[in-house]
Amino acid sequence: MPDEEVGQEIDLDEIEEVCSAATPGPWFVRSLDDDYAMNLVAVSTVEDTGQGERWPNFDHREMIAATLVQHPRYVDCADERWDENAAFIAMAREAVPQLVKEIKRLRRLLSSAE
Question: What is the model's pTM?
Answer without folding.
Answer: 0.83
